[in-house]
User: Fold this.
Amino acid sequence: MTDRERLSQALMLRDGRSYTAYRDLCGCYDMDCFKLHIDHVQADPFAAPSRLRVCVPARRAGYPQHTYSSQGRAIALCTYLIDEFAAHARRGNSFATSNGKSPIAIAEAGQQLLERSAMQVSQDGIEARFTLHFPARGRRIAGERAVQLICECVPNIVENSLFYSANDPAAIAQYIATSEDAYALRAWLKEQNLIAFIADGSILPRHSGIDDRPLRSGAVPFESPQSLRVHVELPHAGTVAGMGIRPGVTLLVGGGFHGKSTLLRALSHGVYNHRPNDGRHLVACDESAVSIRAEDGRSVSAVDISPFIDGLPLGRSTGPFTSDNASGSTSQAANLVEAVEVGARVLLVDEDTAAANFMVRDARMQQLITNEPITPLVDRVRALYEREGVSTILVIGGNGAYLDVADCVIAMDNYQPYDVTEQAHTVAAAHPNARPTAQPLSLHQTRRIPQPGGLDPRRGKHRHSARAHGLDSVALGREKIDMRYVAQLVDSGQTQALARALLYAHTQYINGQRTLVDILDSIMADIAEYGLDCLDQRRTGDLVLFRRHELAAAINRLRPLCIDT
Assistant:
């Protein structure tokens, strides 16, 4: 008797029994062309779905080695296979649950090409991780439906989505080419001393605020101004022209609704590679770029914000500064200092989401209020670049004071960019801004050391709990971390991975001796060497790779966080 027959028989023998009898089926089954692993069975029909894996040997899968010979190629191939697996799981499935969804599901990929635990490709073969709702009648096992679902539907999905012979080689090649071009473009940025590039013809607007797909109807293709146009030779796309942004202070100006924030958002997501035909697949930004904004009410723990805010009433120190309920200005200052602490070399700021008093103070207010503890960003942004090597790209619609400190000014008009740097400098010279000279900038890189007691994963007596709720929040134990304003999180799988990374940091590295930077370095090195599975030994399929900056953001926003300096 084959394993498939044995599994089918076992399911039929359990027909009508209590739902918990499914749990005896955990294990590995040889399904001829692949192996099926039932890793976890849900407790009841209404619980979170069961976790399964299929492993297809390389010789059976049939993929040429060049399709996964590098990290970029492997990620591209995995994204393609996730798309195919998900499509076949939805297609023609007669076992939809009560809400109309397929009982078989895989964590689907968004517009970004990111490492995902749902699909892995190596010399050994392909491993796909998915969830499955074991069928039931009430709280009793529906054996016949289970046989059809597990022993017929799953093999059909595998055979139609994971075998090279069943897929489109041209489509796979397109995914790989797009990924390799993105890696080449990012390497070229460093060689040319650029911090960002937007290719001509890019489609930057999105379908909607909740749909990250490109806007197909009415979108204006990007066209770079001649003065900022550069050319790059890519391995697959060939010679590509586009707008290059150099280090320093860059302003994005223009009227409302003309594309300033759309361009900045594309740059903020330009830290990731994108799938073919995304419209932003040839938009790249420095990998360390971090979006900075005001964040009323966030907690701040031992961050030296004195270069921006100092001399608070009652002699309260801001070096370091701690607060359970930071204001708009103090939160934005903390966000900036924290980003630089963990390696950000480019800051992205939109005045729409910034604290007004942190951005600028006009001459009248300077004369009226002389005892002001805030040194606005306009007085620091130049020194940030010249003394600290940190560039800034700002969306500015109403603050002409920034014209004095800008290296490059790009005006957006009907979603098209124009280089107006010379005009901006002429205007600034014709209307001088008599601002007082700020004290020299010095970002004090204090050794911030998280203490173990500040991360408590306990939930109940003995249970360690780390989980995510969409993109908005991460929970560690009983503490909820607000991630709504961490703008460069793009996939709920990233917040799931961040939750596991917090637990991993607590158990492996936070010992009261290591600095936050050391902890981040160690965790990211472990992921690079061992993959996302090092964060969760259960081999789940819901993890997506994050950056060190988003992990730092999660740690810094944990309210009980205790930092020694």
